[in-house]
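Posting here for the record, re: glycinamide ribonucleotide.
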Amino acid sequence: MRIAVFISGTGSNLKSLIDAEKNNEFNSSINLIISNKDAKGLFYGKGANIPSFVIKNDNEILEKLKEYKIDLVVLAGYLKKVSDVILKEYENNIINIHPSLLPKYGGKSFYGIKVHREVFENNEKYSGATVHYVDENIDSGNIVLQEKINIQKFNSPEEIQKEVLKIEHNILKKAVKKIEEEK
Ligand code: GAR
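Prediction output follows.
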């Protein structure tokens, strides 16, 4: 599959995918990177010579997806809702990584450290990460992979975030592999 990765921030999940491709952990190739702003993570795309674009308009993004013959879109810390324009064309071919055990701590107000703050304040025993298909609602599509850890020994939302991020980096590449095998 030809993959496009969408980011908005640090891009550590993008980096984990770039590394996984280099290490032949899946057969697909990352051919395009899209960001809705001048994200820090664009740096990783430049290092790997992957065409990267900052585009805010979903019609223009769709044109790029077609131009680069993209099969699968991976939302990796992309904090903008993907509109119907893209969803219609890429139905069942867009996945997202989310830093919680969905359906818990998902939805509009749950992203980044906010998720971990809520999880911490609620004294949850477990947290984790989820890769899921993207549908018209936020964080609600079918789950591809999910992995959990016991977080009782952690003393802050930041500690939980650090450990959950390690899980994210691991399951995102495995999700790509799983989707390849299912195609
Ligand atoms: C990741 O933790 C990702 O799960 C989260 O943003 C972070 C991006 O980190 N996404 C969401 O919260 C989406 N609702 P990264 O830029 O270092 O990959």
